[in-house]
Amino acid sequence: MHPRWATFLLLPALAACAGQNAAPAPSPGQCTQTGTASWYRPAASGQTTASGTAPGSGALVAAHPTLPFGTQVLVTDLASGRSVVVRVADRGPSTKGRIIDLSPAAAAQLGIRQDGTAQVRLEIFHPPSEASGVKPAALTDATCPFRHATVA
User: Fold this and answer.
1) Residue 10 resides in a domain
2) Which residue range forms the structural domain that includes residue 75?
3) How many domains in the chain?
4) What pLDDT, on a 0 to 100 scale, did the predictor assign at position 84?
5) How far apart are CA 142 and CA 56, in angstroms?
6) Closest by alpha carbon to 143, among 11, 17, 26?
7) pLDDT at residue 26 in the model
8) 86 lies in a domain?
């Protein structure tokens, strides 16, 4: 057998072995984070988030460990398929293994207030620009803020 053909035949086998322990790479433009969500208990009177929003006020807000304040995130309950768009207004969650804490209003829209937690998928929300009708460019693997998120 010619050496060039041997190399060609071995490449798929080597690639399969190399990828066995690696996490699957996201598709281009796909920027998501999946994990456990919980929700804030209603805050005491006058208590606010790090950005000044009262989480019990009916606002659709959330706490995330790394996303900038003001980032809009589409949160989808993986079991029910229900979704809500929240604005990051605080740091957290404080419970180990959780990726986001939702305000009571956001948890109610997802239908998770009774259970307290749910497996969710987070996506940066990019609504179309009303003026131009053009959607912003999709986030790439290099620019995805979830690549730098840590779950305590």
Assistant:
1) no
2) 28-43+51-126+137-152
3) 1
4) 95
5) 35
6) 26
7) 37
8) yes
